[in-house]
């Protein structure tokens, strides 16, 4: 896995050009920051976890003429907002949305603020059996489908830094699985999209957001709703349908983190603070209700 963290637009342009295809980048924030984690699989397939502050990323005709590439890219948006412009179309992106674009034709990616996404990059020949059909799918949100859901899950798993190194055989299998699912996502079966599929995609994105901001004391249902441009009621509906209200999920995860810290010998106050609790009495009461003992009794 290749990991890159930068603090300037110039560095980000270089990092993106190395990781994907030659690009230009313009920053949208006075204090720029970005990172990427790229996993290269077999047959030229890669999956990259990207996060950055606001920016405009472009691959224009002059750059394409100088450095042509035939790669296809699929962005699965995880947080923040963005858009993809290509072939006269503009697709808006928010958490859970998936949009494809083609490196052989000019495109512009716009991110007005902090964002994160997963990007699948494959050689154009890997989906060559589609002929020219791909041109009609770029800069258009892909409809929910079983293939897209499975592909998004695969990208999230492969793009994680956790886990043991993979063998060449495992990388080949993952590459083929990604290509197969991509073909299925680009060639939907025509069955109507269901609310269940859309809700599941939103739930996964929200759970990821919770995990990434668990230690932030300001994490709340309202903040989740703002992040994904939905109502507070929608957040409650999405999580409750999965069997656990959002506030309960956050509290349970924070308590589990605090317990792990306590069992490792962390002082009670520090364990509470590092788990997102701002009030020690509130933490102690919640811990006792959940585990049937006080935080001090857990420490070795």
Name its key features.
alpha+beta, 11 helices, elongated, 300 residues, six-stranded antiparallel β-sheet
What does this structure look like?
- This protein is 41% helix and 21% strand.
- By secondary structure, it is α+β, with helices and mostly antiparallel strands.
- The chain has a six-stranded antiparallel β-sheet, with helices on both faces. Strands 2-5-10-7-8 form a five-stranded antiparallel β-sheet.
- α3 (146-158) runs antiparallel to α4 (168-186).
- The chain is elongated, with a radius of gyration of 21 Å.
- The two termini are 36 Å apart.
* Beginning-to-end CA distance, first to last residue: 36 Å
Radius of gyration: 21 Å
SSE succession: EHEEEEHEEEEEEHHHHHHHHH
List how many beta strands DSSP finds: 11
Biggest sheet overview: 6 strands, antiparallel
Please give the count of helices. Answer: 11
* Mean pLDDT over the residues: 86
Would you tell me the structural class of the helices and strands? Answer: alpha+beta
What is the topology?
Blueprint: E1 2-6, H1 9-19, E2 24-27, E3 34-40, E4 46-52, E5 55-59, H2 61-66, E6 72-79, E7 82-86, E8 89-93, E9 98-102, E10 107-111, E11 115-122, H3 146-158, H4 168-186, H5 195-212, H6 221-227, H7 232-241, H8 246-263, H9 268-273, H10 280-291, H11 295-298
Antiparallel strand pairs: 1-3, 2-5, 3-4, 4-11, 5-10, 6-9, 6-11, 7-8, 7-10
Summed up, what is this model?
With 300 residues, the chain is an alpha+beta fold.
């Amino acid at each position: 896995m290749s990991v890159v963290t930068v603090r300037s637009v110039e560095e980000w342009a270089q990092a993106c050009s190395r990781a994907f295809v030659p690009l230009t980048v313009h920053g949208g924030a006075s204090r720029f920051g970005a990172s990427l984690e790229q996993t290269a699989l077999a047959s030229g397939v890669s999956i990259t976890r990207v996060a950055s502050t606001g920016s405009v990323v472009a691959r224009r005709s002059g750059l394409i003429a100088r450095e042509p590439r035939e790669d296809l890219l699929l962005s699965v948006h995880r947080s923040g907002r963005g858009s993809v412009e290509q072939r006269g179309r503009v697709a808006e992106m928010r958490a859970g949305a998936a949009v494809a674009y083609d490196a052989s034709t000019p495109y512009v990616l716009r991110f007005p603020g902090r964002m994160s996404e997963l990007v699948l990059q494959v050689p154009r020949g890997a989906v060559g059996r589609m002929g020219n059909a791909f041109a009609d799918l770029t800069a258009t949100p892909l409809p929910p489908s079983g293939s897209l859901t499975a592909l998004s899950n695969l990208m999230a798993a492969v793009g994680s830094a956790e886990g043991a190194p993979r063998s060449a055989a495992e990388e080949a299998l993952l590459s083929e699985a990604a290509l197969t699912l991509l073909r299925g996502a680009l060639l939907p079966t025509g069955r109507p999209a269901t609310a269940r599929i859309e809700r599941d995609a939103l739930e996964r994105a929200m759970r990821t957001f919770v995990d990434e901001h668990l230690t932030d004391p300001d994490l709340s249902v309202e903040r989740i709703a703002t992040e994904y441009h939905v109502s507070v009621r929608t957040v409650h509906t999405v999580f409750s349908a999965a069997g656990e209200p959002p506030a309960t999920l956050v509290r349970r995860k924070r308590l589990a983190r605090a317990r792990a810290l306590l069992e490792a010998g962390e002082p009670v106050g520090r364990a509470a603070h590092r788990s997102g609790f701002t009030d020690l009495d509130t933490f102690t009461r919640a811990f006792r209700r959940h585990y049937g003992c006080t935080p001090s009794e857990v420490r070795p």
